[in-house]
Amino acid sequence: AQSVAQPEDQVNVAEGNPLTVKCTYSVSGNPYLFWYVQYPNRGLQFLLKYITGDNLVKGSYGFEAEFNKSQTSFHLKKPSALVSDSALYFCAVRGALGFNKFYFGSGTKLNVKP
Amino acid sequence: GAVVSQHPSRVICKSGTSVKIECRSLDFQATTMFWYRQFPKQSLMLMATSNEGSKATYEQGVEKDKFLINHASLTLSTLTVTSAHPEDSSFYICSGLTSGGPQETQYFGPGTRLLVL
Question: I need a labelling partner for B95 at 20 to 30 A (CA). Which of A1, A41, A49, A100 fits?
């Protein structure tokens, strides 16, 4: 069965500091992992994905994520947070090839304070 | 990235009426579209998977006669909430799935806020 867990409901960070939003996954087969961001009253915006290749994936708005197979994690990171990064972040895993349903985590609210 | 639009963005209706929400993929063809429901401060709940030219696949607990889904073309899927009641008030989000094997990615619409009075 496919699932993702986001252990933190909320992450607080000061502007300019590095940020990490955690995600762990459970899949049968190769993992296809995604990060999305949601601003208030908006749909989700795609940030980045890991399909195969380099463990460090770079995405939109300066975000990156590190795939760690041994720890079954796919944490989202950014070297220097901006106030405008404050939003709700969702990690997702896609089912095995041929099964296109996505499984979303519960979401993590990121608060970046000036 | 690929663009998905939804219309309307907000709708207020009376209890007992039906509401149709449109989801369009603007710059790609989406053989598969998904419909989600999101409650305040919660994650997305998948309602159904919509495949072009065939019947939608509904998740367990979702009433297919209440939430009618039509995916008539590769760029348009519609969700009709029939005989809406206040408990149907929610944020509805659609997404389109780009095709292409392992690189498949979901792109989301901006959402529709439904308020049933």
Answer: A1
